[in-house]
From TrEMBL:
It comes from the Bacteria. Signal peptide: none annotated. PROSITE patterns: RESPONSE_REGULATORY. It comes from Roseivirga ehrenbergii (strain DSM 102268 / JCM 13514 / KCTC 12282 / NCIMB 14502 / KMM 6017). This is Response regulatory domain-containing protein. Residues 6-131 form the Response regulatory domain. GO terms for biological process: phosphorelay signal transduction system. The modification 4-aspartylphosphate is found at D61. Keywords: Phosphoprotein.
Length: 133
């Protein structure tokens, strides 16, 4: 995993998962996309594989059944600071609710809010932010 551009997507919609993977692999050299359809599986992967991570871009859907993106962020906030530094989390959602945008600001691990579906343009914005950091 060390030499790849690692993306983790957490989204219960298989079509959005597929579209995100296509956009990422078409636009990012040496991309590895790891997809999860629920928060629990993503959390298990992160805690099991944490020592192998370098830098991860995580695209997180907000609205999912059982555990949603907010639940993920609440759990993620309890992780070790060194692990959290390895992640840039982008909320990827179809929500246009201003309350969601405002709530996202309370999570220091959230870099930005991206409208679904992921596009080449929104992916460019992610990489411009990475280069500026």
């Amino acid at each position: 995993m060390q030499n790849s551009n690692i993306f983790i997507t957490v989204d219960d919609d298989p079509i959005n998962q597929f579209l995100s993977k296509v956009i990422i692999t078409k636009n990012v050299e040496n991309a590895e996309v790891i997809s999860f359809s629920n928060v629990q599986d993503a959390m298990s992967f992160i805690t099991d594989e944490k020592s192998s991570f370098h830098k991860i871009i995580l695209l997180l859907d907000i609205n999912m059944p059982q555990f949603d993106g907010w639940d993920f962020l609440d759990q993620f906030d309890h992780f070790d600071i060194e692990l959290k530094k390895k992640f840039d989390i982008y909320l990827l959602s179809s929500s246009t609710d201003k309350a969601d945008f405002n709530k996202a600001k309370f999570y220091s691990s959230v870099v930005d809010f991206i409208a679904k579906p992921l596009t080449s343009t929104s992916l460019d914005i992610v990489f411009k932010r990475l280069k500026a950091a």
